[in-house]
């Protein structure tokens, strides 16, 4: 059985990915450590790797904030950097020797905001663009080791990600993505005979609604 670590598994895109992997004979490892607690994370990952190597690492956990930069608290700034950027880099570091042994796959869930420059998204964009560029550079580093690296940039997706914001995706089914379809795309990427290094997933329409 193939083994996968998936972050952000409790809801949204991460939950859908964990579910589809389990339906396709993966053992999904759900880490309990907080992503900003590097020592606890290191201890838990090392314990898992003592049991068996891993074949797949999916960094899906993410948080956002969209407001004037001077209105964002310093704690919130640190949280976004920790969860969106530092945690995937740290987890990759901890898992990479194992992934080299299994010739495994790293998939980072970034954002459409990593590819553009939107008002009130400077902090979020910085973290997601950092993750995207980490992925693309890491692919070049790992090509000879046969470890595949994929970065995915989803556009508006109907999840609880928008609970704390003053906007959310439109109810028009053509104006947002859904987690299950993104999970299906992840499975196709894993099964693809080659490497999809960077892919952007978008709905046909652009519609949001104010709360």
TrEMBL record:
One of its GO terms (molecular function) is oxidoreductase activity. Gene3D superfamilies: NAD(P)-binding Rossmann-like Domain. Pfam families: adh_short. SUPFAM superfamilies: NAD(P)-binding Rossmann-fold domains. Keywords: Oxidoreductase. The keyword Iron-sulfur does not apply. Belongs to the short-chain dehydrogenases/reductases (SDR) family. This is Short-chain dehydrogenase. It comes from Halarcobacter bivalviorum.
């Amino acid at each position: 059985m193939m083994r996968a670590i998936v972050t952000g598994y409790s809801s949204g895109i991460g939950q859908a990915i964990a579910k589809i992997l389990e339906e396709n004979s993966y053992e999904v490892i759900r880490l309990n450590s907080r992503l900003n607690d590097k020592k606890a994370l290191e201890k838990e990952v090392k314990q898992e790797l003592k049991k068996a190597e891993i074949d797949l690492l999916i960094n899906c956990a993410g948080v956002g904030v969209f407001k004037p930069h001077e209105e964002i608290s310093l704690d919130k700034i640190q949280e976004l950097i920790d969860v969106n950027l530092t945690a995937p880099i740290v987890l990759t570091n901890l898992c990479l020797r194992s992934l080299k042994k299994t010739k495994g796959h790293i998939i980072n869930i970034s954002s459409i905001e990593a590819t553009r420059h939107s008002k009130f998204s400077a902090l979020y964009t910085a973290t997601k663009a950092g993750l995207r560029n980490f992925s693309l550079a890491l692919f070049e580093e790992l090509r000879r080791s046969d470890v595949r690296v994929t970065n995915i940039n989803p556009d508006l997706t109907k999840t609880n990600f928008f609970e704390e914001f003053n906007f959310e995706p439109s109810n028009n089914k053509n104006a947002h993505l859904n987690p299950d379809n993104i999970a299906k795309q992840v499975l196709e990427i894993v099964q693809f005979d080659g490497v999809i290094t960077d892919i952007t997933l978008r709905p046909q329409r652009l519609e949001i609604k104010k709360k």
